[in-house]
Design a protein that fits this description.
The chain is of the alpha/beta class. About 35% of the residues lie in helices and about 15% in strands. It is built from eight helices and ten strands. Bound molecules: pyridoxal-5'-phosphate. Pyridoxal-5'-phosphate binds near residues 15 and 149.
């Protein structure tokens, strides 16, 4: 379905595990590995753990990635769509980043790709041997508890991951998880139905918030990122109403909340709550 051979795929016990192995295999001890200043919170954790010299490229004011910041590095790590901003890069921009970084491993974390209109970068793996795509069953397949993730890339990169894995745990993925993941891949109709529903609910929720005067990023993920003057207070009020969203006390995003798209009914409840506040 991805149009690659088995030797171009590496499976792991969650994409977090695959990502951690990739950090160890390709970035350990290196400097100038570029990643956005606002992205998945685990990247700096692994950076620290594996002695990686991360260079944080600031997102633009509107939280889009400026691809010109990603050049001449020893590696690039980006989530596409990005988290928690929800914004996606076009495949042309991914290719530009690859052209600007011929030496290091360019890792694209596609945890949310199924919710986006942007094309997956898997197609570029044949042309760029230094491109590694990481995917998960946790988001689009709603199987976070199964803990299955995988990487797609050239045999050189996949072999690199296997070498690190084999020094740590040769068989990380249990038999039941393998069977369930295979069944999930086959059920394309269910995936299509659920992702389409989430995209539809995302659109109506975004429109509601915009009509209330909130700024909402152009989401290509299963969550939205909205600006609100007093995000911490809104977080607490929502929590009192048994609605759990995410807020980071972090510069640049302290005035934002990340809201996962639930069912249509849940999101209507959320909007009602926002209106009351
Ligand atoms: C959720 C998430 C992951 C981790 O997914 P698991 O497969 O459940 O470990 C990795 N990267 C990003 C950007 C995510 O949002």
């Amino acid at each position: 379905m991805l149009g690659v051979s088995a030797e171009n795929i590496f499976c792991g016990n969650s994409s977090d595990e695959v990502l951690a192995l990739a950090f160890q295999a390709f970035y350990s001890g290196k400097t100038n590995i570029i990643t956005p200043d606002i992205s998945y919170g685990f990247y700096p954790v692994w950076g620290e753990m594996y002695d990686v010299g991360l260079t944080f490229a600031p997102l633009r004011q509107d939280f889009t990635i400026d691809v010109s910041d990603y050049a001449n590095s020893n590696g690039v790590i980006i989530a596409n769509p990005n988290a928690p901003t929800s914004i996606a890069l076009d495949i042309c921009d991914i290719e530009k980043i690859l052209q600007q970084n011929p030496h290091g491993v360019v890792l694209v974390d596609e945890a949310y790709i199924a919710f986006s209109h942007t094309e997956s970068a898997v197609r570029l793996c044949n042309s760029y041997k230094n491109l590694l795509i990481v995917r998960t069953f946790s988001k689009s397949h709603s199987l976070a508890g199964l803990r299955v993730g995988y990487a797609v890339g050239s045999t050189a990169l996949i072999d690199g991951l296997k070498r690190v894995r084999d020094a740590f745990n040769s068989y990380p993925l249990g038999m039941l998880a393998q069977l369930c993941a295979a069944a999930a891949i086959s059920d394309t109709a269910y995936l299509k139905k659920t992702t389409e529903q989430i995209i539809k609910t995302r659109k109506s929720t975004t429109n509601e918030l915009k009509s209330l005067g909130y700024k909402v990023c152009n989401s290509q993920a299963n969550f939205i990122f909205m600006q609100t003057p007093n995000a911490a207070a809104m977080y607490n009020s929502l929590l009192e109403n048994k609605i759990l969203v995410r807020h980071w006390k972090k510069e640049r995003i302290a005035n934002f909340l990340r809201i996962t798209i639930g069912t249509q009914e849940e999101m209507e409840e959320f909007i009602k709550c926002v209106k009351r506040l």
